Amino acid sequence: MVLIFTVIFTGCKKVDVPEEEPIAEETDEISEEVEDDSGKKIDEDKIAGMEITGNINIFSGLEISDEVWNSRPIALMIENSPDSRPQSGLIYADMVFEVVDEGGVTRYVAVYSSYDAGITGPVRSARSYYAEIARSFDSIYAFWGTYPEGYDIIRKLDMDVLDGNSDVIAYAKSGWRDYSRSNITEHTAFMSTIKLKEEAADYGYSLKGVQSPLRFKIDAVNSDKGDISDITINFSYDSY
């Protein structure tokens, strides 16, 4: 009897039901973000400071400043034999001409206009055909020596030059040799376009002048051309 009443009493005990938490009602309100326009102002100031010149670099096709536009380029003779690599400063040149030299080895005529190169080289000697390339851009031609007849030809081209090897024409004393690069003397000469411009000014060369397109050699008048029927070309080595 006691057992039955216990079961009945237990079965009739009230069960606690947990209260449901109130559900937050959704709203259509959108929180407004506060915009920080400080970065925008910096960008606007940066854009305003960029000068739109309309000057197009005839060497690269890119826009350049008035300062570069009105500056004469520097043309440098750069070695390209396998033993001379890697070269320095070629990345800063606007144009690089590769020309076959004696023995099938090539050299570069690197024309610097938009950027300066603190170190460029190895610098090598001049040849008449390299000088004519440099002259065609009204550049200041820098090299490291040449053969005796080469000096005479360069003089006749009536161009501004700087020679790191001697004072036969105009000695560029700022050039140097770096024997840590090679134990072969021909691969150790280096120059700086920054220093070359300073020396060019000391020699009275003009550093100003609108970038010049190709300047072609002026033909002599017919009366000065002469009457030539035979031409003899002497080659000093078979490899030439």
TrEMBL record:
Residues 60-205 form the DUF3048 domain. This is DUF3048 domain-containing protein. InterPro entries: DUF3048_N (IPR021416), YerB-like_sf (IPR023158). Pfam families: DUF3048. Residues 20-36 have a biased composition (Acidic residues). Residues 20-39 are annotated as: Disordered. Gene3D superfamilies: YerB-like (3.50.90.10). SUPFAM superfamilies: YerB-like.
